[in-house]
Amino acid sequence: MSIGDILTKTLTNMDIVSSITSTVFIILLGFYCRKREIFTDKFGKILSKVVLTVALPALAFNSFMQDINGKTLKEGINVLVWGFLIYIILILISKPLYLRFKGDQQDTLRVLTIFGSTTFFGIPIVGAVFGAKGVMYSSIFNIGYRVFLYSYGYIKMSGLKMESKNLKNMFLNPIVIATFAGLIIWLIQGALPQVAVAGHSVAFLRIDQTAPWLFKPMTYLAGLCSPLAWLAIGTTLGEISFKEAASDKTSWIYSINKVILVPALNIVLLAILTMTHILPVSYISLATIVIMMATPTATVAAAYAISFDKDAVLASNASLLSTVLAVVMTPVWLVILEVINQIGIF
């Protein structure tokens, strides 16, 4: 099958096309409603809080309500390992990447490049396109992200030692609690007390089987994640002057590195690791990781820059430009990933 045939097959796949149009159209709806002042300036922040404290935890927990087998366990371990390795790699290569920049500007560019909005921007897209398995792998992948964001990211931007409040943010926020709760249940479900459901035994904590009255409302909450996150992204874009940000050449350099170079690097390295059987991953894992890494500036990373006066203007411009570029590039990455899938590299 030629590349042209693969592209045609990809672009006529209604699941892929629908996922792309859903993302873009709802973001544009949020942008339109903010520009028309249907949504107030506080509306995006409220939506963000709902997503981060309610919808995303439900989505993360629910994604682990599935059977475990040797293949998925090995895959999950490989994703977890890569979730730590890639941040070490990015810390190392971000230095030469921004060598011509100095001082605070270099520190800010490095931290913003290393840490994207994997939770708020990435997981809703992964969930919409790749379903529960994608969300499960993205939640596992994000463990390394949170460890480095609240340790290396904070220390690099603040110049201070690690503080207890960052340990709290690292481990005691709703998303992390839900992720670890779901992960533990998924891993040890075979050792938990079993109950009979529809003629077969399942762990009593598998609420998708044993407590549908609880799982169903959590499913509704999880379903809010993607549309509310996309509306919030559109609302945020509607509040900022794109013209001012677009005049900043440095922000363009950063945005291209963050949204194009970083995910491309992941594809190359994971292809090598998979073909050499050193750290093999499946297509769904690869696609999940690429979408997570093709995200714009992490809110926490930008907040570090503003809080510690580390070129706050650059951080704001970079955040806007990278978000716009991520919205444009996400459909492109989905098509590229499907082409890779059809070729059969993974």
Summarize the entry for a quick read.
The protein is an all-alpha fold and 346 residues long. It is built from 16 helices and 2 strands.
Could you walk me through the main structural features you see in this protein, from its secondary elements to its overall organization?
The two termini are 16 Å apart. The protein has one domain: Up-down Bundle (Na+/H+ antiporter like fold). Strands 1-2 form a two-stranded antiparallel sheet. Helices cover 78% and strands 2% of the residues. The longest helix is centred in the middle third of the chain and has 41 residues, at 118-158. The protein is mainly alpha-helical and 346 residues long. Helix 2 runs antiparallel to helix 16 (312-343). This is Malate permease. The chain crosses the membrane at residues 16-34, 46-65, 77-99, 111-130, 136-155, 175-198, 218-238, 259-278, 284-306, 318-340. It is a multi-pass membrane protein. It comes from Latilactobacillus curvatus.
List keywords for this structure.
346 residues; mainly alpha; Na+/H+ antiporter like fold; two-stranded antiparallel sheet; 78% helix; 2% strand; globular; membrane; transport
Estimate percent helicity. over 70%
The CATH class is Mainly Alpha
> C-alpha Rg, in Å?
20 Å
Low-pLDDT segments, ≥5 res: none
Average pLDDT reading: 86
Structural class: mainly alpha
C-alpha termini separation: 16 Å
Order of helices and strands: HHHHHHHHEEHHHHHHHH
The CATH topology: Na+/H+ antiporter like fold
Gross CATH architecture: Up-down Bundle
Largest sheet: 2 strands, antiparallel
Number of helices: 16
Q: Strand tally, please?
A: 2
Strand line-up in the sheet with most strands = 1-2
Apparent shape: globular
